[in-house]
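Q: I'm teaching a short session on how sequence maps to structure, and I want students to see two examples side by side rather than one. Could you give me a first protein with its sequence written out and its structure tokens following it? Keep the formatting plain so it prints cleanly on a handout.
A: Of course. Example one:
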Amino acid sequence: PVLHFDDVSSIPFLQDISGVEFYQLRSRLRAIDGDLFAATCAAVPGYEAYNRAYLGLGAPEFLHAASVETACEIGLACGHGDAFERLRRVASDAGGMTIHPYMGSEPSWALAMALTQAAGVPVRCVAPPVAVTDYANHKGHVTRAAEALLDDGVLGGHPVVATRSATTPEGLADGLRELARSHRKLALKMTRCASAMGNGLFDGASVLKASHGELLAEVEAFLRAKEWVVGDEVLVMSWEDAWSSPSTQLWIPALQDGQPVVEGVFEQLLVGEEQVFLGSIPSGLGELWDDRLGVASQRIARLYQHLGYRGRCSFDFIIAGDNAHLVECNGRWGGTSSPMHLVERVCGSERPPYRARDVVSDSLAGVPFSEILRRLDGHLYDVRTGAGTFLLYNVGCLAEHGKLDVVAFGEDQAAVTVELEERLPGLLGL
């Protein structure tokens, strides 16, 4: 049996995302017959029946784990009380267990070790070891890996944007002033944050006009807001005007099991000046760009594989002019790979045109999931017939935050956009 859970507690500032403590129900998308999926939040009435009947996702067991500290710490919760005893019995009866977590953070490996000791059977973890997980998700390390492994021809130009790094406020101020001489926009980036949560934007002209004291004060204010640990590396990077922000989705097998596989190239839907992730669509960039991005991703993924990386991984890029630049690695499952995997499960490997995004409205807060199903009756994709437009997931946020995630299908991306942006709001009564 396989235990799936989405513990995001090791990623800084995700608590700033509305309803993130309920994202853990995304682990249901990976679970099949005989598996378990765990969460500290309660099951959503009607959601499991929807997954089984409409999407054909099998009948895994839901494990409700009582929170020990915060709701996001699911690995910790699974290691205590009735939840741990249930897992111990399942592992013992089956002669072993596999844990397939959101990412290879310390709670995932600690739970695997605790179950191994308690059940007396092997419990493996489909994820990189903690140190390798930390390495892959560190923006400074992936930047240096790209500079070492990708020559200027792979992505059409230099593999990363202009970058400096420092471990002191003074060094960061100096880096900003240096890059401001040749770049209009700049950013400070914390190395371990996700979804733009660790970014701070600076205007190049303003940086050059500021006195040393004024600029240093701005840098120090940014570091305080991001709870910087003295001595940690922070990046200074040029902020380019990009016309696309693609992402490659990879599966990295154990070293002896073959090469890393690029399972898809996607264009991310980003909003706001700091480019916060909203959703994704399969790439329409064309074969040349898809191939370039795939080759670059595989080279770095091969390095990770030799370090002991195993499991889901993605790389984010920007394309500015004729050049692509690597921005970061996400060494975990995420907002693009989860719906990609869901679409593959219900439609097969030949994914139809689709788009995934979150839908948020105060008017949906408190609306039962059964009511959402009623409003979309006749428009929900049904694996039994192969007909329908919308897939629903990540519905744990609905009751408190009026938020759920939706995949829309269509003949092409233009039709998908119409379905998701124009038709869906009307059906939901927004």
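Q: Perfect. Now a second example for contrast.
A: Example two:
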Amino acid sequence: MKKFLIILFIPFLGWGQPNEVSADSVIAYAKQFQGTSYCYGSCTPKSGFDCSGFVYYVFGHFNIKVPRASLDYEKQGRKVKLDSARKGDVIVFTGTKPKNRRPGHVGIVISEPGEELKFIHSSSGKKANGIIITNYATSPYYQSRFIKVVRVAGVK
């Protein structure tokens, strides 16, 4: 009687290591939602997004865990300098009152170091509402509210 050795091929999935995704993939996915309306407390494209719901939804698509609430970014992640911000980082701002220095708004950086910093986010503003791209350099409003940039584990 002949014996056969059956080899089961299981590709290496990097067990025990965090998922890694390219920042370009994150940005391309996020940009698909431009124009989606703002909706407080929501994190789905069907009903709209609040700022942290949008960030949570985009990274969640790639199985990357980030906080659901902007306030939770207060002690979250590895802080990087503003001029070192790169695609896929999360930019953290105060809420609408700049003197209250606690996180209240977040977005995803879509530019590279050396370029003008731009970020995509869900805005509740009267002039620009929903998923928009903002140029940090031309927005004194966001400059006054800036807290930090956080590097997201798993984005390369």
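Q: What should students look for in example two?
A: Point them to this: The beta strands are 43-44, 48-49, 78-80, 90-94, 103-109, 118-124, 129-135, 146-151. Also worth mentioning: Residues 51-61 form the longest helix (11 residues).
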